[in-house]
Amino acid sequence: MSESLAVSTSKEIQDGSASTRSKKKDVNSSQVDLEKPLGNFTGKPLYPPMGKSVMVVESATKAKVIQRYLGDLYEVLPSYGHVRDLAARSGSVRPDDDFSMVWEVPPSAWTQLKSINLALSG
């Protein structure tokens, strides 16, 4: 005696015409509100994006080229090099503390960080 398994298409599942093995509860698909979020979600929806996505690259030339490829949904900003470096003093790498590192922001990078922060804030 062989048992056959039925494969349902996504359209049958959406219509509610697909058969299920256990019919403990008969729920009509019109009773389920798919647009209403489940739970107590109070954050912003992730998709579709409301504003521009921000991408940071190292050079201004790369930023211009990538901006042409990505279009208006993205804002591509140059960082003009590193925005943080290891501290110049000794002890910036701590081997006793799981090789944690002490970072500092060079004074020349603050303008780029402010423009990146402004773009991220909206």
Keywords:
single chain; 122 residues; alpha+beta; Rossmann fold; two-stranded antiparallel ribbon; 24% helix; flat
Structural class: alpha+beta
Q: For the largest beta sheet, what order do the strands appear in spatially? A: 1-2
Number of helical segments?
3
Mean pLDDT: 76
* CATH-assigned fold name of the domain at 53-121: Rossmann fold
Short account of what is shown:
By secondary structure, this protein is of the alpha+beta class. It has a domain at 53-121: Rossmann fold, CATH 3.40.50. Helix content is 24%, strand content 15%.
Q: Can you offer a commentary on this structure?
A:
By secondary structure, this protein is of the alpha+beta class. It has a domain at 53-121: Rossmann fold, CATH 3.40.50. The chain is 24% helix and 15% strand. It contains three helices and six strands. It has helices at residues 10-15, 60-70, 110-121, and strands spanning 53-57, 74-78, 85-86, 93-94, 100-101, 103-104. A two-stranded parallel sheet has the order 1-2. It has a two-stranded antiparallel ribbon with strand order 3-6. Helix 2 (60-70) links the parallel strand 1 and strand 2.
Provide the fold topology:
Blueprint: H1 10-15, E1 53-57, H2 60-70, E2 74-78, E3 85-86, E4 93-94, E5 100-101, E6 103-104, H3 110-121
Parallel strand pairs: 1-2
Antiparallel strand pairs: 3-6, 4-5
Keywords: Isomerase
Protein name: DNA topoisomerase
Organism: Trifolium medium
